Amino acid sequence: MMDTSRVQILLSTWNGERWLAELLASLEKQTFQDWQLLVRDDGSSDQTLRILLKWQAAHPEKLAGLLLDGNHLGSKLSFSRLVEASTAQCLMFCDQDDVWFPEKVELQYTTLRRMEAQYGEDMPLLVHSDLVVVDEGRSLQAVSFWDYRNFDVMQRKQAYLLNNVVTGCAAAFNRAAANMAFPLPLRAMEHDRWLALVCAWFGQIQALPHPLLLYRQHDHNLIGAEPAKLDGLSARVEAWSQQAEVFLHRFGGRLNVQDYKQVEALAGLRYLQGWRRRQHILHHRLFKQGVLGNLALLLFA
């Protein structure tokens, strides 16, 4: 079937039988209907595929494709495959256990089109929104994910090296962003984090302050909405540093001298230990959001 949709919703599934019906129902209720669903299953062993095939039979015009290679790649590489297979000008990541508000596609699509009118279609552009956090039974946990995590969504581009404030399922991005950010490097931390980093440094990001979906927090979340903890901080420093290294490898030629040195400083952080690492953080101002986060970084990284 020839793709004529203006929006493609990229859904990666994995053993999602418990949640899929509710998600798909929320997509059907979107006020903007010029969208198609592009799905990749990441090797499910439950009834996920049966649910998807039944939905396809009921809505044949809405499924742009179903990628079934049988491999379990994990979330970030599965979404990368979806972006690589996509064709629409506007793309939206979708998690199998969320519930979208009816206006989500319309608001994000129209905002992205306004951004393209302002900045041009060749610039990587991303729009993202706040989320409502709920538990497995949809009981309210937090009316604002951004407040819950103390996010500064207006942060400068340098902050994206260590702080990600863009949640994939709450984001929409254009073809220029897709072409520049993907395929995803293996050492990128997550698909949404890498995409936000690329758009912050080479394009534009706009935050919509109102929530546009229910973000379900449960034991099976890959990352979830829980605030970051001190344990594992050293591993996160390693991950930030590795991602900076691949960012430098892919985009170093596009950076000015000052920006190159900033990214290079973070890339070199994983080769230092103890006080040398702390001095390096202070000297190059490799800071996170908030005083407590930076104290933790200096004390426990």
TrEMBL record:
It comes from the Bacteria. Coiled coil: none annotated. Residues 9-177 form the Glycosyltransferase 2-like domain. Keywords: Glycosyltransferase, Transferase. Its EC number is 2.4.-.-. InterPro entries: Glyco_trans_2-like, Nucleotide-diphossugar_trans. One of its GO terms (molecular function) is glycosyltransferase activity. SUPFAM superfamilies: Nucleotide-diphospho-sugar transferases. It holds the Pfam family Glycos_transf_2. This is Glycosyltransferase. It comes from Thiothrix lacustris.
